[in-house]
Write a structure and sequence with these properties.
mainly alpha, 1% strand, 267 residues, globular
Length: 267
């Protein structure tokens, strides 16, 4: 019997990629609006996306923040809707799982690479035309913890570990990819759990937050970013944090695989 999962991987990459393309288009429009607002207005916009100087964050940084929720949502959609589509068309659950995993890995790499290229082009045009707007990186203070577990958890969900692209494009893209893939797995877990267990799948939301929180702490320690006060470890090699994150993701993927094997699909 021919292997189906490579085709599933290609289909998932293209379908989810088309969603990502639309999402990135919207983010690009928002970026242009922010640039025009900065040019036409002397009023300082105070938010996490603007620095005190009134500058505008790069497209890469804006995409960095918004992509987490986007990947979480399409992860949920994958388990809730896409699985039933494939199974009803004769694709095995194993092929669906392997294909989705591979296709999403490709997407998690493509989004930050495309974002970096688009961001570089925008910055180049701004500098070339001498447009009076400051393109600033994200403020590092966004990662500062509040000393409370709930507050730290919320911050870890909104603001994931960040590396300034101007320091290292390769590392920035790599961290971006890890972040959004983690969010996808979290959403995939939530969707699979609710599809399998109904209302009792609400427990998966807690598990998803745990995944995001641990990944946030591991990567933040390695990058020298602020971590909760109860964390006594102050230094970790980045390789150790990445391996630890991948091991944790593998465990969650195993749980997703177990649940998708038992989900009842209505034809």
């Amino acid at each position: 019997m021919p292997r189906i999962y490579p085709k599933v991987a290609k289909d998932m990459f293209l379908v989810q990629g088309s969603w990502a393309f639309g999402f990135m288009e919207v983010m690009l429009i928002i970026q242009f609006v922010k640039i025009m607002s900065s040019i036409l207005s002397d009023v300082k916009i105070v938010s996490s996306l603007f620095k005190e100087s009134g500058g505008v964050n790069t497209y890469f940084d804006s995409l960095f923040i918004a992509s987490n929720i986007f990947m979480l949502v399409i992860g949920i959609i994958s388990a809730v809707s896409v699985l039933s589509h494939y199974v009803s068309n004769g694709v095995t659950r194993k092929d669906y799982f392997k294909g989705t995993l591979i296709g999403t890995l490709g997407l998690a790499i493509t989004i930050p690479v495309a974002g970096a290229i688009i961001s570089a082009v925008i910055t180049f045009i701004v500098n070339l035309l001498n447009i009076p707007v400051n393109m600033n990186p994200l403020d590092g203070s966004m990662n500062e913890t509040e000393g409370h577990l709930i507050a730290d958890l919320i911050l870890s969900i909104i603001f994931t570990p960040y590396e300034d692209p101007s320091s290292s494009w390769l590392l920035a893209i790599f961290i971006f990819a890890i972040n959004i893939f983690t969010y996808y797995v979290a959403g995939w877990l939530i969707g699979a759990a609710f599809s399998r267990f109904g209302i009792f799948g609400i427990v998966s939301i807690v598990l998803a937050f745990v995944l995001i929180y641990i990944e946030d702490i591991l990567i933040s320690i390695s990058l020298g970013l602020p971590v909760p006060s109860f964390i006594t470890i102050t230094e970790l090699p980045l390789a150790f944090s990445v391996i630890g994150t991948f091991v944790l993701i593998a465990i969650y993927c195993w749980l997703i695989r177990l649940m998708t094997k038992k989900i009842i699909v209505k034809y």
